[in-house]
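Hey, quick one: can you model this chain's 3D structure?
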Amino acid sequence: MVAEGSDGQEVCSMYEVARPDVVVMDVTLPGVDGLAATRELTGRYPAKVLMLSAHAVHDYVTRAFACGATGYALKSQPAASVLEALKAVARGDRYLAPELPVSLLTSSSVRGRSAPGQLDGLSHREREVFDLVVRGYSNASISGALSISIKTVETHRANINRKLSVHSSTQLLRFAALRGLVSE
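Sure thing. Here's the predicted structure for all 184 residues.
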């Protein structure tokens, strides 16, 4: 740790001097809140911000990403999981707490761009599977993350491939990358 601020304004002032690899920011801070501070930081600097919050609320998560946060972790996560979140954000990867629905990463405000029509043919569950596939999850990991059977994951993947006219995982990843649907 290189610095600590008590409110959003202080964090912004300290960033100019400390230039940390990652800023860990709470959503609710006195004075200038964490969302406004994140917007200011990411608007002025190439800051990587990990929101660390007690709030597992859709509105806070989508607003945090819309303000420029790179990741959103929960204070209730085990320390090792928060460390993984820090490492992911430091690499520039998007991070979303495992307890939060993956669909939060698919909104246009989270991605910073919309993808009209590109995935409209997918059901909500297929879109969740799609997002996990392009994030590198295996069928078994998807099964665990979504609490569905591996066979159901395989069925969803087959439907996704058919609907998007791709024939392999490599083609699916290429489809996502060419359309800006992958953060790496």
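One thing worth noting: Confidence is low (pLDDT under 50) at residues 108-116.
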